[in-house]
Amino acid sequence: MMWYVLLVAVVAAERIAELVVARRNERWSMARGATVAGQGHYPLMVALHTGLLAACVAEAWLGGRPFLPELGWPMVAVLVCAQGLRWWCIGALGPRWNTRVIVVPGLPLVQGGPYRWLRHPNYVAVVAEGVALPLVHTAWVTAVAFTVLNAALLTVRIRCENQALTAAMAPEFATDRDLTA
Predict the structure, then answer these.
(1) Which helix (H) or strand (E) holds 144?
(2) How many Å apart are CA 39 and CA 45, to the nearest integer?
(3) What backbone phi and psi angles, to 5 degrees, belong to 36?
(4) Whole-model pTM above 0.70?
(5) pLDDT tens digits along 40-52
């Protein structure tokens, strides 16, 4: 169990590294006239992702969930791949990547890296991680709860992000309503 707590702590440290990158990128974007959208859902996203980390450890420990190698090791592999995909996304977007919906007007959509195949590959990484991290130690309640809540949140987030990107590329078609989700 101790190694699982360490694994979750490593994922938490990775999240902190993301926030450092996001802050730096936010300054870069704002200096170029960026707009911020989706302020309403962002605190929910932070709470959900923080809750995921806490719930993984709590369910594994309090629920006496065992480590089952036939499930746990493949989930570790999925988790590692999810982290690789996330950092590939961060690298592909460069200073435009952020944990918030921040868009610099006039910049074209990124077409390289994983964005060559998917419009929102970072969310594929989020979904994979949200399933894999709890299931490493058979915390299936956490995996199901996060998946359901995350699906609802991603519905709002992706709509907000798409509207913000559209507005940044063609501001004359945007409305204030589009940018507040």
Answers:
(1) helix 140-169
(2) 10
(3) -110, 130
(4) yes
(5) 999 999 999 999 9
